Amino acid sequence: EKGGYDHFMLKEIFEQPQTIFDSLRGRLDAKAGKLTLGGLREHTDLLKEANRIIIVACGTSWHAGLVAEYMIEELCRIPVEVEYASEFRYRNPVVGKGDVIIAVSQSGETADTLVAMESAKEKGAIILGVCNVVGSSIARLSHAGVYTHAGPEIGVASTKAFTAQLAVLALIGLKVAVEKGTITEQRFQHLLDELEDVSDKVAIALELNEQVKKIADKYKDARDFLYLGRGYNFPVALEGALKLKEISYIHAEGYPAAEMKHGPIALVDENLPVVFVATKDSYYEKIVSNIQEIKARKGMVIAITTEGDQIIPGMADDVIVVPEADELVAPIISVIPLQLLAYHIGVLKGLDVDKPRNLAKSVTVE
Ligand code: M6R
Question: Which residues form the active site (predicted)?
Answer without folding.
Answer: 361 (for fru-6p isomerization activity)
